[in-house]
Amino acid sequence: MALEHSQSNDYYYEENEMNGTHDYSQYEVICIKEEVRDFAKVFLPVFFTIAFVIGLAGNSVVVAIYAFYKKQKTKTDVYILNLAVADLLLLFTLPFWAVNAVHGWVLGKIMCKVTSALYTVNFVSGMQFLACISIDRYLAVTKAMSHSGVGRPCRLICCCVWMAAILLSIPQLVFYTVNHNARCVPVFPYYLGTSMKASIQMLEICIGFAVPFLIMGVCYSITARMLIKTPNIKKSQPLRVLLAVVIVFIVTQLPYNIVKFCQAIDIIYSLITNCDMSKRMDVAIQVTESVALSHSCLNPILYVFMGASFKHYIMKVAKKYGAWRRQRQNTEEIPFDSEEPTEPTSTFSI
């Protein structure tokens, strides 16, 4: 996880280090980053707590509705359900990173590897499912216009997305460990240190941002153009939703991936040689990645709660729950401490 890695990461190190491994967290011997850690101890737990509460509530509602109430599902519904599951699993890793920011990693090496891998799997798969949703919306519009076919089976696509995300998480399972400072960080073999870390960074940028962004940009631009040209339909609401989806994706994901790209370039060419600049880079990666994580809280609003169909199911569940509550309140109950007949009561008493 880049957030944890950046807290103790430094760009100063001895070139003749030949101990067999390349631990990027040991550079702090020359560049002390206590203020970076102090910032992380305050910022990350607060942000992660807010994101966890909001995201857990929104995505849990989405999973409950689609899994238990909506029987007839479209392909978009299946993608949204998988997206909500990925967001929930991602959010469940945040408490571990929040504690880690304050106290260090206390759960051992295995949990360090598993938590880092889960973070990558769900972050990457979430971005890929956003791209799948954009493709399905594009196909829905073009099918309505040109009566074209549906495309590849939905379940196969979902399996491919999850498998690609799992494969991308293998470096986390292999290289992440707990260092001597009780931090969960990647430790690469010395001969692979620079090239391996930079390659992983670039691969995550391509699969987790560049490819989904390209797909979403193309599909939504074509979809918007066809909606504008279509007569006799209400265009304002769908266009506003498409515009909101694209803007939120750019605002939340682009800054993080720009900083991540700069970090990868620095790993290769060692451009950052100033300690203050290195600290600013660490703070930037913490802030921008936190903003990127907030997308998991906004997904239910952007993709579900704006839809009339989902609102219908929400109201249906609310009415069902309300009727059940009223039925319970109107049930006649008899106190346990008396055998005499009593008047009906609407409250439970002992």
TrEMBL record:
It is found in: Cell membrane. GO terms for biological process: calcium-mediated signaling; cell chemotaxis; immune response; positive regulation of cytosolic calcium ion concentration. Pfam families: 7tm_1 (PF00001). The keyword Cell membrane applies. SUPFAM superfamilies: Family A G protein-coupled receptor-like. Keywords: Cell membrane, G-protein coupled receptor, Membrane, Receptor, Transducer, Transmembrane, Transmembrane helix. The chain crosses the membrane at residues 42-69, 78-97, 117-135, 156-178, 198-220, 241-259. Its main location: membrane. Residues 58-303 form the G-protein coupled receptors family 1 profile domain. Gene3D superfamilies: Rhodopsin 7-helix transmembrane proteins. It is a multi-pass membrane protein. GO terms for molecular function: C-C chemokine binding; C-C chemokine receptor activity; scavenger receptor activity. GO terms for cellular component: external side of plasma membrane. It comes from the Eukaryota. Belongs to the G-protein coupled receptor 1 family. This is Atypical chemokine receptor 4. The lineage of its organism: Eukaryota, Metazoa, Chordata, Craniata, Vertebrata.
